[in-house]
């Protein structure tokens, strides 16, 4: 991504590229980008959410829940706060699993 080549301190660029890798199922590359985004801006919900989704994709339930827990402890001035307070992170994980078709590797 050209933006990252010009300025590697743009968290949003790591998030964007990480989401592209996530869509392709390239979880190791995805995790690297989301970790970079979180280290640059640890208060951004989307980055923690993306990291949780990546851990889910890798089958690492404990780390996914840890990422969602970290997200739920952040102060949120938006509607998201009400949703997170109603749902525990493990409930979020289960609801995401119901929404996604299961991927089977052959």
Strand and helix layout:
Blueprint: H1 2-6, H2 11-24, H3 27-40, H4 45-58, H5 61-72, H6 79-86, H7 89-99
Plain-language structure description:
- This protein is an all-alpha fold.
- It has one domain (2-99): Serine Threonine Protein Phosphatase 5, Tetratricopeptide repeat (Alpha Horseshoe).
- 74% of the residues lie in helices and 0% in strands.
- Helix 2 runs parallel beside helix 4 (45-58) and helix 4 (45-58) packs antiparallel against helix 5.
- The chain is flat and about 35 Å long.
Task: Provide the descriptors you would attach to this structure in a database record.
74% helix, Serine Threonine Protein Phosphatase 5, Tetratricopeptide repeat, 106 residues, 7 helices
- Biggest β-sheet: count, sense, barrel? none
- Based on CA atoms alone, the radius of gyration comes out at 14 Å
Roughly how much helix do the residues carry, as a percent range?
Answer: over 70%
* CATH superfamily membership: Tetratricopeptide repeat domain
Q: Could you tell me the mean pLDDT?
A: 78
- Overall geometry comes to flat
Low-confidence stretches: none
SS elements, strand count: 0
Instruction: Give the topology string: H per helix, E per strand.
Output: HHHHHHH
> What structural class results from the helix and strand content?
mainly alpha
N-to-C CA distance: 31 Å
* CATH domain class name: Mainly Alpha
- The name of the CATH topology is Serine Threonine Protein Phosphatase 5, Tetratricopeptide repeat
- How many separate helices? 7
The CATH architecture can be given as: Alpha Horseshoe
Strand fraction equals: under 5%
Total number of domains? 1
